[in-house]
Amino acid sequence: MGKYTQWIEHKGVKILLVNYAGLQDEEEYMRAIDEFEAETLSQPKGHKMRVLVDVTDSVLTPRITERNKEVEQKAREKGIPDSPTALVGLSGFKMAVVQALAFFRPDLHTADSVEAAKDWLIEQPIE
Questions:
Q1: What is the CATH number of domain 5-122?
Q2: Is 110 helix (H, G, I), strand (E, B) or coil?
Q3: pLDDT in tens, 14-41
Q4: Where are the domains of the chain?
Q5: pTM of this prediction?
Q6: Separation between Cα atoms, residue 81 and residue 23, nearest integer Å
């Protein structure tokens, strides 16, 4: 698997872990998003996956936000639906952005720790 994205198992359930933790350089963050995009788009049409995103101590810029929206759009165009997603490491502005998104995406969840995020994700139904 890649440097930023890997499949993990928690209590017998597969979760895609996207590790943006500590990314302070926008260009490196963009490479990490590219890796996440490649893994997402490699999934078959209609496939839902459980996704854990760790953004602890990472930057959030308009360019990063826009790039994430592009990945979401490309996935939808390929027929890959939104999936349960747990985010760890949010505070301040990042938390406000996610709370705004959660209005449209009830499958978004914020967690205080990676373990709590994993526990929430395995409880989410995937059809």
A1: 3.30.750.24
A2: strand
A3: 999 999 999 999 999 999 999 999 999 9
A4: 5-122
A5: 0.89
A6: 27
